[in-house]
Amino acid sequence: MLTSYQGRDAAGERAKSVHPGERGEEPAGWSRGWAERRACSNGSVPQVSGLDGQTQSIFEDAFASLGRVDNVSMVMGFHPQYLESFLRTQHYLLQMDGPLSLPCRHYIGIMAAARHQCSYLVNLHVNDFLQVGGDSKWLKGLESAPRKLQALGELNKLLAHRPWLLTKEHMESLLKAEENSWSLAEVIHAVVLLTHYHSLASFTFGCGVSPELHGDGGHTFRAPSLSGYCVCDIANGNGVTDDLLANQLAMETSGEVEVLMERMKQLQEGRDEEEASQEEMATRFEREKTESMLVTTTEDEESLTSSDVSRHFEDPSYGYKDFSRRGEHVPTFRVQDYSWEDHGYSLVNRLYPDVGQLLDEKFQMAYNLTYNTMATHQGVDTTMLRRAIWNYIHCMFGIRYDDYDYGEINELLDRNFKVYIKTIVCSPEKTTKRMYESFWRQFQHSEKVHVNLLMMEARMQAELLYALRAITRYMT
C-alpha cells in the first residue's frame, strides 16, 4: 500500500482514455441536452449518442443488475473507468454477502441521503428497500424503524456534519448496547454505507442530477427557483438566457486556464529550487485551515427541509460547523498517525472482506484519473491541481499531510472554486446552479464532473478516517 494519494500519477496512466470532448462531449447535470441522457422508462437499456463501447457495456451490466441505469450513473459515464469501479463497489455493498440484511442496507442509505435532504437518493432507496422485502412501516419515520437502526442516528449525524467529534464512546454505545447491540462487522458495514451515501449526495447536488423523468419528483432539483430560472428548464438545459450567460462568462474568463497552468509551472519550479521547512509547512496548514473557515457556503437562497425526507433522521437543525471555531480546539488529524493505507484499509478488509480493496481502488481511480488535458490544452500534468483539491477538502476536515505544502492551495484554487468545494462537501443541499457556473468557466463539463468525483471520494475518505480511528481506539 502507498502512504498517501500524493504522487500516484504513475498508476493513473491506466486511467487514460479518449477525452469526452474528443468524441463530441455531451453535457451533464445543469447543461444543455441533459434530458437525452436519462434512463429509459420502457424497460430498455438507454442508447446514449456519442458513448464509446466500454461505457455502453457498463450501462448494460448495470441495467442487468439493477433493472435501471440511473442519472448518477449517466453523469459518471463521462469517466467509464471510474464508473466501473463505483458500480462494482456499490453492488458489493448493497447486494453481495455481508453483515447486514438487504433491507437494512437500503434503509441506512435512506438515512444517510436524508441527512443532506437528497430526495433523489432517498426515493431510489425507498423503492429498492420495498423490492427487497423491507417493512413499509419503517418508512413512516425513523421512530418506526427497529431500535437497532434508530441507534445509528447519532453516528449518521456526526459523520455527515462534524466527523471530527466522533469518539470511541460513540462506537461503544452501539457495540455494548444492552439490547440490540451491533457487531464490529455490522458497524463497519454501516459506516461504509453512511459515508458512501453522504458523499454520493454531494455528487448528486454538485452535478445538478435530477430524478428520472418517470420517477417521483421528476424534473425537480430543489424547492426554490435557481437564479430566476425554472427548475425544469435547468434540468433539461433549456433557455436562450443560459447561452447568453455562458458566452458572457467565457469572455470574462478568457485566459483563465493559461493563468492556472502558469501558476502550476511556477509552483513546480519553486518546489524544485527550495523546499519549505517542517515548521513552515505546519504554519501554512494552520493558515489554510483558518482561511477555510472564512469561506461561506450560504447563498441568497436557503435550502428547505422536506418533511418527507426529514422524517428519516433526527435533529434536522444540526448541520455543518467549522471544526475549529473560536473558543474551541479540535486536534489536527495527522495522516502519519492514522491513515487509510496503513490502518483503515486493513481494518475494513478484516471485518468486511474485500470491501477495503474495493474502496481503495475507487479512491485511487478518482485521485489518479487523468486525460492530461485542461480545457483545450493537451499534454498537461494535472497532478498538482488534483492534489490541491483533495488536500483542501481534507484540510477543511482538520486532516493534515506533513509532506504537503498548503501554500499551493491558495495559488491554485480561487475563491469561487473554494465556495463551490466547501458547499458540495459540507452542505451540498445549499448548492446552486450559479456556483457550478462560477468556477472553471472555460473547462469542459466532463472536467467539472471529474472534480465532483474527486470531491466525493475525498469527503468519503475523510469521514471514514474519523470513524475507523474511533473504532480502532475502541478495540485497543
Automatic annotation (TrEMBL):
Note whether Oxidoreductase occurs among the keywords. Answer: yes
User: Residue ranges of region Disordered?
Assistant: 1-32, 290-311
Task: Identify a single GO molecular function assigned to this protein.
Answer: L-leucine binding
From the UniProt record, list the reaction(s) this protein catalyses: a hydroperoxide + L-cysteinyl-[protein] = S-hydroxy-L-cysteinyl-[protein] + an alcohol
Listed under GO biological process in this entry are: cellular response to L-leucine; cellular response to leucine starvation; negative regulation of TORC1 signaling; positive regulation of macroautophagy; regulation of response to reactive oxygen species
Q: Name one Pfam family in it.
A: PA26
Principal location: cytoplasm
Tell me the keywords, alphabetical order: Cytoplasm, Oxidoreductase
- Record carries keyword Transcription regulation: no
Give the family from UniProt. Belongs to the sestrin family.
Kindly provide the name given to this protein in its UniProt entry: Sestrin-1
> Which species is this UniProt entry from?
Denticeps clupeoides
Gene responsible for this protein: SESN1
